[in-house]
Amino acid sequence: MSKKEMLKLALDLNQFIDASKTPSHCVAEVEKKLIANGFSRLYETDSWKLKKGDKFYVIKHESALIAGICGKKSPKDSGFRIIGSHTDSPSFKLKPKAVFTKDGYIQLTTEVYGGPIFPSWVDRELSLAGKVVVKKGKTYEIRLVDMEKPILLIPQLAIHYNRDVNESFKLNPQEHLVPVVGLTDKSVNDEFIIEMIAGKLKIKTSDILNYDLELYPYQKGEICGIGNEFIMNRGLDNKAMVHASLEAFLEAEPSDATLVIALYDNEEVGSSTTNGGKSSFSEDFLERLVNFSREDLLRSVARSYYISADGAHAFHPNYAGKFDSMNKVYMNKGPVIKINANTNYATTAESSAVFEMICNERKIPYQKFVNRADVRGGGTIGSMIASNLGVRTVDVGNAMLAMHSARETSGVEDHFWMKEALKGFLEY
Prior knowledge:
The chain has helices at 3-19, 23-36, 75-78, 191-201, 236-251, 281-289, 294-302, 349-361, 382-389, 412-426, and strands spanning 40-42, 55-60, 64-69, 80-86, 91-102, 105-113, 126-136, 139-146, 180-183, 208-217, 222-224, 230-233, 258-264, 305-309, 312-313, 336-338, 367-369, 392-397, 399-401, 408-411. It is an alpha/beta fold. It folds into two domains: 3-89 and 234-426, Aminopeptidase (3-Layer(aba) Sandwich), CATH 3.40.630; 91-217, Aminopeptidase i, Domain 2. A hairpin with a 2-residue loop joins strand 5 (91-102) and strand 6 (105-113). It is globular. The two termini are 21 Å apart. The mean pLDDT is 96.
């Protein structure tokens, strides 16, 4: 495939991530693409009446989404082909009482979400985005808000006051990672945030019931490297897999199997939420596609395959000792199959073989990753989905550097190859 086509997809990925400031914004971007491609929204409160070829999606609490295309045959005869990924990334969330002043500075208290690399967040332009609960008569509605400009920073202490900074860079999130918003000689409280939101949404402050805001790095994504090899952006883990699965889903040819992409929230904090991978969201969705027949669901799952798509760790040339010398993976060498003997990943010999056959048939390069025996790796939604649904699952991802940094790096070619592999899986 041409480099031009690969670069085009990578640029589209950066645009997608730039617009996906939070999990809810990510779902909103996915919804736009689905609607543009003829999909209809279903609601959990409605009765679903679906037929062959129908294209549909459902949103859970604004930050999780599952979309499907009904197959030519019943799921009990042809199964499901499901790709799962997650919409959230490590960040910092505003506390309920966040605004205070200190010696002329306006600052915000935050709580750590997930496992961000603290030093990567300092001395860079930051902004705020999230959900706002707005009064609507006797009930409420959810609005998304994005300040869309750099209004925050977390300044580091000058080296003159911290001579050991280049030897030990330990930051306490309660004391050292408190964002600065501006300067003032007046007393300021949380009305400051409410007024900022109201101004952005053009509503009255009295209509704002609650909000859930998080910080995000303001800098947009870039293609870099001497040969345009690298994608750099925030949230590549895991919005890159959301984008790859969505593009594969929209390009896939109609199939006997029912095709599904599942985008969950809260993976970075364990998935134990109503819209996370551990929830009943997936099973409830699939059960409705077989008209609540338990037997048909079990028959369907037995014929199904699931891909858990999440970032993988590329070999880092400056930290070679952290990697298993026999199982290193590299950027732009193709999708990575992730394996763990203790089932942190759900990959089995059988599920891996299916993915490998798809890649071989379509001439897509692939790699296999295993951690050093003395290094504990991360987890994904794969094992929890496999155990909850009983579906054959393989964990895959693209090799990347600086995972969980405010600025992550992955390969331009890999994103294209992953999209093609996921498309092949949906058509399998």
